[in-house]
Amino acid sequence: MIEPFVPQLVYIEPDALEYALGRQLKTKFEAMGIEIRETTSHNQVRNIPGKNDLQKYRNAKSTLVVGIRKTLKFDTSKPSAEYAIPLATGCMGHCQYCYLQTTMGSKPYIRTYVNVDEILDAADSYMAERAPKETRFEAACTSDIVGIDHLTHSLKQAIEHFGKSDYGKLRFVTKYHHIDHLLDADHRGKTRFRFSINADYVIRNFEHGTSPLTERIKAAAKVAEAGYPLGFIIAPIYLHEGWEEGYLKMFQLLDEHLPEKFREGMTFELIQHRFTKPAKRVIQKNYPMTKLELDEEKRKYKWGKYGIGKYVYQTDEQEAIQYHLHHYQEQYFPEAKIEYFT
Ligand code: SF4
Known about the structure:
Helix content is about 35%, strand content about 20%. The chain is an alpha/beta fold.
């Protein structure tokens, strides 16, 4: 059983103490006996302990920086939402394929932002611009926000904020089952709570430090019981020996643990495994023993943003993935819908 995340080391930016959440977190971490260091900026968090890069990387993933989000310009977040809402960055998980390894570069520590009210005000401005059209915000673009929210409750605040909004919707995805504090949030059906699921082979080999699949599914049932719209992201869909059987078993497990009454309106999002050349370099550095297949020759090149293309599966492999997963969804969850495959 994986325990809720507790940082080994906490850095607090002085400005963060001007916010109630910053002060609360300081008091909380002091009471927990966690080492706290002050820093003027997260860029100065250089002294992450460790004898070599690998140890530093591991220690950074259990280091939390409490700071302020200065840029309140949101990134776009297609295809699942219009904008990414930045409540935190970084993650304690060790998913070897995770794209955060590339985007976080040499600073893989976790940052949580205490100016939540300002971030939510910025979200309101984005909603006002598009009103009366609905605006969806994705809260898990730069972290597994649920994984740290038991400490900060900033996601809970966001859920309640969007609950009260006229045109806003919130969504996020998690691989953690520590969701109990979110069950009584006043969400008013405006937040889609998604869990990331995968075939056993992928979870066992590439998703270290995350909750087991059955725990994720049990948490999904609790969330649905609390009235949240529910979804599952199957990602990354990864071809391995016996993958057809692996994903079939995953659907069967979901079918076994998820009561029928929660299935209406449920969504699936399907994302195939992909990598970029820079990501491959970082993955092989951070996880030198990885079994992850990263052979450009076997893949199809897809042009990407900023000239950095990604390597996806060949067209016939993509068709096979879609064929099998659509078939399983129709067989076990005909009430649900697949939102997209990418
Ligand atoms: Fe990345 Fe999500 Fe895994 Fe965290 S849980 S390492 S964000 S894939």
